[in-house]
Amino acid sequence: MSFSWSPKDNKSCNNPPAATGFKRSRNDIGNKVTVVLGAQWGDEGKGKVVDMLATEADLVCRCQGGNNAGHTVVVDGKEYDFHLLPSGIINSKSTSLIGNGVVIHLPGLFEEGDKNEKKGLKGWDKRLIVSDRAHLVFDFHQVVDGLQETQRQAQEGKNIGTTKKGIGPTYSSKASRTGLRVCDLMGDFKDFSARFKNLVQQYQSMYPALTVDAEDQLKKLKEYAERLRPMVRDGVYYMYEALHGSQKKILVEGANAALLDIDFGTYPFVTSSNCTVGGACTGLGIPPLNIGDVFGVSKAYTTRVGIGAFPTEQLNAVGELLQTRGHEVGVTTGRKRRCGWLDLVILKYAHMINGFTAIALTKLDILDVLDEIKVGVAYKINGKRVPHFPANLEVLQKVEVEYETFPGWKTDTAAARKWNDLPPKAQNYIRFIENHIGVPIKWVGVGKSRECMIQMF
Ligand code: GDP
Ligand code: IMO
Ligand code: MG
């Protein structure tokens, strides 16, 4: 599957910025990175899109999130799921990087690698680079994630429905400047142990029910440290060299999605990182000018795992059909995903933030059997259209969705490989979506595997 990678803008940009002025010519930019981001509430099929693009990529990077992500890739009938590893790890010719913005649970990382190795993924640990600035998720962060959920349930009668992978507590440790990073683990272990114990103590004073066998944890961490050491690099310098060395195809794999973003998502029912385009810069240490194409991934309908507002949710036979036909079950947690019609209000909102250059529309095939298909095009409050996406969840919960209704195509699209193979009614549906959002749809997914992707241009 080919698409045009942004070319390197200059051949002589190995030099550091000129000392004589702060304005560099655009020619000094270096390689551009292509970013793939979830445009809804996650599980849009980012793994599949990344896998398709990664067959040509030299470097595939994760920039945020942790093993709360669950990305499925199907190759030659074999299904792989990736949580912390970039999905591009499957391509034996490319290197994968876990950037500083990611939070890493070391037992989870090695378990994932070993599990996939048994499925045939050879040499993954030789192709993986880990930033020394990435923060570490400890087992007790995961326990605390669970305790916080119990506390929310007791205090508010509801929780967030987190993945319990310790994501929130680890980003909290990072923000409160008590977190520990990969570089700390690579340094003096005595210092690391002292800081680890302090962190444990802090959490135990907040959560008296928390028991941690610090010595046992440290023993295990010491072993993981040696397994990790060969992969660790200064992530910023690694990226700088990748951007400014020879021409390279660099891909950034977003985890989670726009509506789960800590700043722009449906707060507080969100994750704890920036899953929108800014996260690619802060999570890898790359300048905004090096961002090239930004591809948004959206299903042809909408799903959400966990709790929170979902204006186009269908708590009826349509929702059930989407759930069962779409096999909408969380890759990380095994929870059933909530399902509803495609919501163009959220896609427009995701586009405002990310500036998508094109969209990959996945799972069109799931709609094949429907008599009619609806698309949410606007939100109304008291009969009046709202021009923006409401920040306040109470407001969002009350919006009335205005729908456009399309006739179903009632044709199996799974074998379609080009635009002309699609039934005209399906083409109509796709054209409506791209016109409404104002972003071209570059790929349409009609099945799980690599070849089930129609490229439009
Ligand atoms: P991610 O988290 O965004 O990578 O997505 P997930 O892997 O969590 O969920 C997407 C699911 O949809 C996976 O099971 C994919 O194999 C599947 N999938 C992706 N694209 C398509 C498609 O076009 N059609 C069908 N039927 N399944 C798809
Ligand atoms: P991918 O990359 C779907 C959701 C969780 C929960 C909320 C907070 O596979 O698209 P967290 O554990 O991050 O603190 O949970 O965010 N969530 C996801 N939902 N796909 C994901 O990732 C998600 N990552 C987090 O269900 O509601
Ligand atoms: Mg997923």
How would you characterize this protein structure?
With 457 residues, the protein is α/β, with parallel strands linked by helices. The protein folds into three domains: 30-132 and 231-291, 3-Layer(aba) Sandwich (Adenylosuccinate Synthetase, Chain A, domain 1), CATH 3.40.440; 136-228, Orthogonal Bundle (Adenylosuccinate Synthetase, subunit A, domain 2); 298-455, Adenylosuccinate Synthetase, Chain A, domain 3. It is built from 13 helices and 20 strands. It has helices at 46-54, 106-118, 139-156, 167-175, 182-186, 189-206, 214-228, 235-244, 278-282, 317-325, 344-354, 393-398, 424-437; strands spanning 33-38, 59-62, 71-75, 78-82, 95-98, 103-104, 128-131, 135-136, 232-233, 250-253, 291-299, 302-304, 338-340, 342-343, 358-362, 372-381, 384-386, 400-407, 441-445, 453-455. The strands form five sheets. A ten-stranded mixed sheet has the order 9-7-5-2-10-1-11-15-19-20, sandwiched between helices. Strands 14, 16, 17 and 18 form a four-stranded mixed sheet that branches. It has a two-stranded antiparallel sheet with strand order 3-4. Magnesium ion (MG) binds at residues 42-43, 69-71, 331.
Mean residue pLDDT:
94
Summed up, the helix count is 13
* CATH-derived topology of the largest domain: Adenylosuccinate Synthetase, Chain A, domain 1
Q: How is the largest sheet built, in terms of strand order?
A: 9-7-5-2-10-1-11-15-19-20
